[in-house]
TrEMBL record:
GO terms for molecular function: kinase activity; protein-N(PI)-phosphohistidine-sugar phosphotransferase activity. Keywords: Cytoplasm, Kinase, Phosphoprotein, Phosphotransferase system, Transferase, Transport. Its main location: cytoplasm. The phosphoenolpyruvate-dependent sugar phosphotransferase system (sugar PTS), a major carbohydrate active transport system, catalyzes the phosphorylation of incoming sugar substrates concomitantly with their translocation across the cell membrane. The enzyme II UlaABC PTS system is involved in ascorbate transport. PROSITE patterns: PTS_EIIA_TYPE_2, PTS_EIIB_TYPE_2. GO terms for biological process: phosphoenolpyruvate-dependent sugar phosphotransferase system. It comes from Streptomyces gancidicus BKS 13-15. InterPro entries: Ascorbate-PTS_EIIA_comp, PTrfase/Anion_transptr, PTS_EIIA_type-2_dom, PTS_EIIB-like_sf, PTS_EIIB_2, PTS_EIIB_2/3. This is Ascorbate-specific PTS system EIIA component. One of its GO terms (cellular component) is cytoplasm.
Length: 266
C-alpha cells in the first residue's frame, strides 16, 4: 500500500461514468464518498457550491479536477474517490477543460492527506502514468498504476540546471506560498509539485513552501517572496504586495520550473 492507496480503495474507483455537466460529475464523485462512508451528502453539495462561488480553480491540470472543500462535520473520515468520465465535461476553465477525471477528496484536517496528495502529484507528473490511467480497464488496474513507481524519471521534463543551482537565494531561507480557496487540496497539490522542482534545483534548504487559503494568504504575504496559484484565485487575491504567479497545470514540473525561473530571474 502507498499513502495514496491508503485513502483510495477499489470500491472508491468508478470508470467510464456518464455525467451531463460539471455539477453532475462532482456529485457523482461525492456520492462515491458517501457510499464509502467517507462523507455525507452535505459535503457533496458543499463541493459544488465551492466551484459556483470560487470558479473552476479545482481543475488543476488538463482534464483533471480535484474536488474538495475545507474540513467540516460532514467529513466522517479522510478518503478519496476516483471517477473517470465516459465523456469529458467543461468546468469553464480557460486552459484545462474539458475534464475527464474527477478525484474527490474529503479530509478531517489539513494534514492527514498530505502524503497522499504528494504521491498523486508525482503520479500525474509522469506522462506514461497518465496514459496508463486513461487506458485502465478496471479499478484494480488503476490502483496498480497508483501504487507503482513512476515509469519514467520525469514525464514532463523540467530537469535541474547548473545555472539554477548557482543562483540559489543568498538568504538562509525564503518562503513561497501556494494558495487555493480552502488550503487543503489544490494548494497542497501545487506545493508538492513545486517542492519536486526545488529538490532538483538543490534549493530545498533555501526555499520553503507553505500551502494556505486565500484569507490566510493575505496575512502571510509579507513573510513570502511570491505566491503561486490558479488564475481564478489570483483574481480573488488581487494586490497582496508580492508577485502572484499563475500556474495553469499544477501537475507540470516543466511549467512550475518556468514560473520559478521567472520569479528568481534565473
Amino acid at each position: 500500500m502507498s499513502a495514496l492507496t491508503d485513502l483510495l480503495s477499489v470500491d472508491g474507483i468508478r470508470l467510464d461514468v456518464e455525467a451531463e455537466d460539471w455539477r453532475s460529475a462532482v456529485r457523482v464523485s461525492g456520492q462515491v464518498l458517501v457510499d464509502e462512508g467517507i462523507s455525507t451528502a452535505e459535503y457533496t453539495e458543499a463541493m459544488v457550491r465551492n466551484v459556483e462561488e470560487n470558479g473552476p480553480y479545482i481543475v488543476i491540470a488538463p482534464g483533471f479536477a480535484l474536488a474538495h472543500i475545507r474540513p467540516f462535520e460532514a467529513v466522517l473520515k479522510t478518503g478519496m474517490s476516483w471517477v473517470r468520465l465516459a465523456s469529458p465535461v467543461a468546468f469553464g476553465h480557460e486552459t484545462n477543460d474539458p475534464v475527464h477525471l474527477v478525484v474527490a477528496l474529503a479530509a478531517v484536517d489539513s494534514k492527514a492527506h498530505t502524503a497522499a496528495l504528494a504521491a498523486l502529484a508525482k503520479v500525474l507528473a509522469d506522462g506514461d502514468n497518465v496514459r496508463a490511467l486513461q487506458q485502465a480497464t478496471s479499478p484494480e488496474e488503476v490502483l496498480r498504476v497508483l501504487e507503482g513507481e513512476p515509469i519514467s524519471a520525469d514525464g514532463q521534463g523540467g530537469s535541474p540546471a547548473a545555472s539554477a543551482e548557482d543562483a540559489a537565494p543568498a538568504l538562509s531561507e525564503q518562503k513561497i506560498l501556494t494558495v487555493c480557496g480552502n488550503g487543503v487540496g489544490t494548494s497542497l497539490f501545487l506545493k508538492n509539485t513545486l517542492e519536486q522542482v526545488l529538490d532538483r534545483w538543490g534549493w530545498s534548504r533555501q526555499v520553503s513552501v507553505e500551502a494556505t487559503d486565500t484569507i490566510s494568504a493575505k496575512g502571510k504575504a509579507s513573510e513570502a517572496v511570491a505566491i503561486l496559484t490558479s488564475q481564478e484565485i489570483a483574481r480573488t487575491l488581487g494586490d497582496v504586495g508580492i508577485p502572484v504567479k499563475v500556474v495553469r497545470d499544477f501537475s507540470s514540473t516543466t511549467e512550475v520550473d518556468a514560473v520559478l525561473r521567472d520569479t528568481y530571474d534565473v
